Amino acid sequence: MMRKEKKFQLKLPIETANLEIVREFVARIAQNMGFSEENIHRIELAVDEASTNVIRHAYKGAASNAKFLTVEVTTHADRLEIDVIDAGKGFDPDQVKTPEMDVYLKKMKRGGLGLYLIKTLMDKVEYKIKPGKKNRVRMIKYIVT
Amino acid sequence: MEIMQTTQNDTIILGLKGRLDTLSSTELEKTLADLLAEKKYKLVIDFSDLDFISSSGLRVLLATGKQLKSVGGKIVLCALQNHVKEVFDVAGFTMLFVLYPSRDEAVKGIA
Questions:
Q1: Which of A9, A45, A95, B34 would you call most buried, defined as having the most Cβ atoms within 10 angstroms of its Cβ?
Q2: Which residue is closest to A16 within chain B, CA to CA?
Q3: Shortest CA gap A56–chain B (Å)
């Protein structure tokens, strides 16, 4: 029988100290769904990277109020969907370059590595960018049984 | 995250315990910067009790490795748990660092 989809939501001020809360929130849900430990580690890292990007970049130059990070998790019978949402300036995912390691080593460019890890560790990544309104990175991991 | 520092001859060993994320990587960054300022140029980082690393942690290691290279120093890593090693593999960092299975081998290797 198909499990009914369930939604969970967490809204937090953008502080690096809150990354642990985000990771534990998502890890616990993944654990309850029966994901392997290996995949729970991957999911935790992906959600950490997406949240770190929001904390570091999304609200740069914005006024101090209303700087939040929202994590919405939807569990389906076959997959886990994690949305990391902000209302910041947004970004163009196509412009975020995958780092080339030798260039990376020379220049120590900041961006790119987090998104690259997300794309590699999750099964699917989707972006919906509405600058100043709602920017969403959706990360999907399938349960393999 | 906890950082436990020990010295063996002219090598500094940092044992990391817990989670190396965006928050704790600033702490590691400071510890490493202090060591470099004291001209400690031979570093072993013991990962046996480290459960998590994100790109912030990788960047700190990379920056330190780069600085050490420019002064003829060395940084090696040891005892990575499988899921932490996977992050190094995926990011291409396995090629940038010398990894040893144990602390003893790392200390011997860097000498």
A1: A45
A2: B23
A3: 10
Q: What is the pLDDT of residue A42?
A: 98
Is CATH 3.30.420.10 the classification given to domain A6-142? no
Does B63 sit within 8 Å of A16, measured CB to CB? no
For chain B, domain boundaries:
2-103
A13 SS3 class: strand
Of A17, A48, A101, the CB nearest to B54: A48
Q: What's B94's DSSP letter?
A: G
CA-based nearest distance B83→chain A, Å: 7
Encode pLDDT of A52-62 as tens digits. 999 998 888 77
Please tell me chain B's helix, strand, coil percentages from 3-state DSSP, rounded to the nearest 5: 50, 35, 20
A138: alpha, beta or left, given left = phi > 0 and alpha = psi -120 to 50? beta
**Chain A nearest C-alpha distance from B8 (Å):** 29
pLDDT tens digits for range A28-40 = 999 999 999 999 9
What pTM, to 2 d.p., does this model score? 0.91
Q: How far apart are CA A80 and CA B79, in angstroms?
A: 31
Beta strands A124-130 and A134-142, pairing class: antiparallel
Instruction: Say if the Cβ atoms of B22 and A20 lie within 8 Å.
Output: no
The three-state secondary structure class of B21 is coil
- d(CA A14, CA A65) in angstroms, rounded, equals 11
**Chain A neighbours among B 41-70 (CB < 8 Å)?**
52, 54-56, 58-59, 62-63, 66
Taking each helix axis as running N to C, give the angle between helix B82-91 and helix A113-121, from 0 to 180 degrees, rounded to the nearest 10.
120
Question: What's the confidence (pLDDT) of residue A33?
Answer: 96
